[in-house]
Amino acid sequence: MAVFREFDSRGRDRSAEDRFRHRKLVDDSIKKNIGNIIAEESIIGKSKDKKIKIPIKGIKEYRFIYGKNKPGVGSGKGDEKRGDIIGSDEIEKGQDIDQAGNNEGEDIYETEITIEELINYLFDDMDLPYMERKKFHEIESEKKFKRLGYQRKGIKPRLAKKRSVIEKIKREKASKRGKQKASNGDKENEERERFPFKEDDLRYYHLRKDVKRESNAVVICIMDTSGSMNITKKYIARSFFFLLYQFVRLKYLNVKVVFISHSTIAKEVNEDEFFHKGQSGGTYISSGYEKALEIIEKRYNPSVWNVYAFHCSDGDNWREDNEKAVEQAKKLCETCNLFGYGQIVVGGYIPTSSIKSQFIANVNAPNFSVVTISRKEDIIPALKKLLKKEEGLME
Amino acid sequence: MMEYTSKQLEKWDKKITDIAKSEGLDWYPQEYEICNYEDMICYEAYVGMPSHYSHWSYGKAYERKKTLYRYNLEGLPYEMVINSNPCIAYLMRDNTLLLQILTMAHVYGHNDFFKNNRLFAEGTKADYTIEMFKNHADRIRNYIEDPTIGYEKVERILDAAHAIRYHTRRFIGLKELSREEKKKRMLDKYYDDLKSTGPLDDKKEITFPCINKIPLEPTDDIMSFLIEYSDLKNWEKDIIHIVNEETKYFIPQIETKIMNEGWASHWHYKILSQLELPQGLYMEFLNRHNQIIRPFYGRINPYYLGFKIFEDIEKKYGKEKIFEVRRLERDQSFIRKYFTEELAVEMNIFQYNKKGNNYIIEEIADKKGWKKLRDTLANTVGIGGIPYIKVEEILPRNKSLVLIHEYDGRELELNYAYETLKYLVDLWGRKVLLKTTVNNSQKTIVCNDDKTITMTGG
Q1: Which residues of B364-384 are buried (b: 16+ CB within 10 A; e: fewer)?
Q2: Which Pfam family, any one of them, does this sequence belong to (chain B) (predicted)?
Q3: Which of A344, A346, B204, B314 makes a 20 to 30 Å CA pair with B281?
């Protein structure tokens, strides 16, 4: 006589742990590939609310499988002839996941995500370094990420660990009490059982817009647009500034941003021109720095403002300008909280007179930071390095 | 709302077992668990074993299945059966009464197959199935909780072990000689060869066998080889052992998918035909049965193929023969021996291959082609769908591991091969080489210990 049982999971969610871990691996793979995703040409210059679809490859379980010349056998309709071409769709649709899991079919998750969310993924733990309290808090800034209470739904980075543990303990206690009642306090069974987290236990920080006075800050973006900056380099530079700009915009609502593009002469441009217009000509890096210093002097008094300056160039400065550029860079270091220089090196050619080596040799300020970017994948690590708070600033 | 009571199920179970007994089926005690839709997905994801150890791949399987069902891309199975004694089967609560009856009859077919098929009887220990999975899970949990090991390290080994999990001994019932026995055999052969060379024979070069090579002869059991010869720590070897034990448990199921489903379908059909079902249930039965054994275009429905072959054997050779077949064969031999031209024609079987982006029909079921179809099918079912790879030797010079892919016309998917080799380097700790054939020429894929991949000719 067969036995029939009602299965009762007692509220236990067996796969929760493994699902969570899998999600985490997927998240990690998003982060790893985010450099490629976010540096796509189509994204640069788009507004932060723009939704983009990104395909994420599933975490594959690799093993030895057959690829080429793998014959298959199947049932047909009876009218098949040798040499017939059959729709690849029908076969592929039919490919089952056989017991060996012998299937190389791609698991592609398509996630819709806004640029804002992407940036959050990237820079969640970053801040503008060396931020100081300046004399006047002129700007009433609305700092976004103020934690205020908890909620049941949220994104992974906002998981409130402690709170979730508390919720779990509550549930555990309640369930124990329930059991005790049922078994009349049978002490024997009180061994510690595994009591895993359930989805319901998880709490996330609730974020409120929080109005608060904040130190004044201005970010000055200086980009080399000279002739030697070819399309690839310009593209990298723009991506770099685009990300920086988004970061600043998202984190600090009222931070001012100044755009300067330079060849042998520099001029202040607006956002649109900065990201979309090209230029050409020779290179006087000092011109860009001069312009920056001039703007700082006119509009952003360093005793009142936190000033951040970033410069991207391929380092192919005209030789006669090197000395001047180094001088100006030193001056920028004196006026700014942080001065970051990103050198874009694409391909094997590295100009011997690169301004980077000059900078490294001659500018010894602690708030000066140099990074090298050679592929679009480098952009994000470079940015992170520049923004890394007060540690290891020199390359 | 359930449309049946458990009393009803018990009543039908009694009727089913009465018929099954009179038909000669022989099974382990049967236990049923009635579960809901989500539990069923969970059972499926965890290969039927909720006590299975944790790994993200099961979380992935769960999400994947759930998504597929949600979008109706795949139907949920009505039942799941575990090869264990007592045999455990899961029934979905939402099934109609007829589906439960049909599933129960089907389950007795599987249960009988588990108890009697040679591969299961020799290759698995049904009495200890549940304990084995539980014990494995406990051991893995202990390693995770060990402060000197921890989750990430365990996961790293599991990831790698899963990548090569099917590279264990393929054939059940072959006696494996010990290293000493093999050595003796090689030496005996050498001395026999020397002796048998008479003074009048042509001078033959008889080389002394390399009796220090590791392994002496290429072995397909890469998992056990790593346990024996790698520098892994004991707990790491234990994890490989655990994964290997699990694969051994599943190989009989992989090797008899068509027979097992065919056998179970054969019996649910026979039993339900004799159950004297009321009209309404009878119509539903015919309907469901035809659903289950319908052909799938462009591939093989194991229920359909197995059902048809067993039906044909019984028609030709009588009832005793099908019991003998279910005891002795596995899918490969089953197809080789009992798949006939008539069946191929009746089921419109054809063979295709991918040329460029198109699938082209290579063979169809006629006088000329059916044997080819049969052989392709026999060679690609079960474990035959997994590339056959052996350990050839450890290079004495730098202890690199040399693997050889036994090429049979099917080439390896290279990206997958590269990534799998990286996992092997994780386990072996040194360079790993794989000899294979790419575009009809011999190649060696090398994965260095820094996991860079190169490919060389020859």
Answers
A1: bbeeebbebbbbbbbbbbbbb
A2: SpoVR_C
A3: B314
List CB contacts (< 8 A) between A59 and chain B.
56, 60
Q: With 0-12 CB in 10 A as exposed, 13-18 as middle and 19+ as buried, what is B157?
A: buried
Beta carbon pairs, A and B, within 8 Å: 246
Task: Give the 3-state secondary structure of residue A331.
Answer: helix
For B81, how many CA atoms within 13 A lie in the half-sphere containing its CB? Answer: 27
Domains of chain A listed by start with CATH number: 14-63+105-121 (no CATH), 161-202 (no CATH), 215-387 (3.40.50.410)
- For residue A100, the distance in angstroms to the closest alpha carbon of chain B comes to 7
Q: What is the DSSP letter of A159?
A: B
pLDDT tens per residue across span A165-213 = 999 999 888 888 887 776 654 555 555 667 888 888 888 888 776 655 5
Which residue is listed with tokens 């970051």?
A340
Residues of chain A with pLDDT under 70: 10-11, 31-58, 87-113, 121, 124-128, 130-146, 182-193, 209-215, 251-254, 278, 347-353, 389-395
**Shortest Cα distance, chain B CAs vs residue A198, angstroms:** 14
pTM of the model: 0.71
Alpha helices in chain A (DSSP H): 16-38, 88-94, 115-123, 161-182, 231-251, 271-276, 285-299, 322-335, 355-362, 379-387
Q: ipTM of this model?
A: 0.91
Measured distance CA(A22)–CA(A35) in Å, rounded: 21
Which residues, 6 or more positions from A195, have their beta carbon under 8 angstroms from its beta carbon?
A168, A172, A175
Biggest CA–CA distance in chain A, Å, is 98
The CA distance from A310 to A383, in Å, is: 10
Grouping H, G, I as helix, E, B as strand and the rest as coil, residue A111 is: strand
Identify the closest residue of chain B to A70 by CA–CA distance. B410
Q: Quote the pLDDT of residue B412.
A: 95
- Among A330-339, B43-52, B188-197, B361-370, the minimum mean pLDDT is found in B188-197
